[in-house]
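Appendix B, Record 12. Input sequence as logged:
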Amino acid sequence: MPQIISVGHGPDMRRIAVLARAGKGPPVVWLGGFKSDMRSTKAAILDDWAERTGRAFIRFDYSGHGESEGPFEDGTISRWLEDALAVLVNHVPEPPVLVGSSMGGWIALLAIRELLKSSPDRAPVGLVLIAPATDFTERLMWDRFPDDIRQMVLETGAYRRPSAYSDDPYIITRGLIEDGRRHLLFGSPIRTGCPVHILQGMEDPDVPWQHALKLVEHLPGDSVSLTLINDGDHRLSRPEDLEKLIAAVEGIA
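Logged structural output:
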C-alpha cells in the first residue's frame, strides 16, 4: 500500500501517493512522465531490480496522476516539481540517484537545481534520464502547435490533444504552458554536479533524439553519457530497452 504525504497549503493542498522500498546504497528515486504513473513498466522493473539487489527505491505519483489526488488539469510544472521536492524531503534521507522519464527528466533537472541552492548536502549523486523532455511545454508543444491550436489554448484555456498511449486525450491547459515558461532551462548551462546517463530512442515521435543532443550541449560541466537506441521509441519498454535502463542505473548508482 502506498504511503500518503500532504503537499501544498490551504485550497492547494493535495495528497501524494508514495511507494518506498527500504534498502542499501544511494536511494534510487523514480520520476515519471506526463500522464504516466508509478506502476508503469519501467518503474516496476526498477522495483524488481531493487528487491533483488537490496537497493532503496522510491516512486510516487504527481498530483493528478495515478493514485495521487487532484484533477490532472490543475497540474503545472511548478506543482509537479513541488510534489517531487516534497517526496525527496520526506522519504529520501541521503543523496539519491534520480531516474527521470520524459517529463520526469525535466522535473529531475529542476529538482537538482533547487536542491543545490537549498540543501546541497542532499543533492543527487547521479542522474539517469530516459527520453528527457526538457522544456517540453514550450519546445515540444507550443513551438509545434499550429496557429489555430495556439488560439484555442489562449481563448478556451485548453486543448484536448489526442494521445498515442491512451484512449483519453491529453488536456493541455493554458496554465501548463504559461507556467512552464517559468522553468525553461535551455539557453544557459545546466549544472547538476553529478554524472548523467541519457537513454534516447531515435524513433521517438514525442522527444526527438536531437532534443537529447541539445540537452547534452547544455551540460558542459558534468560527466555525461548518451546512449542512442536506433530503433527505440519513446517508451523504451521493450526487454532490451529495460536491460539498458537497469545497466545505466547500476552504472550510475
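Residues 100 and 108 are 6 Å apart (CA to CA).
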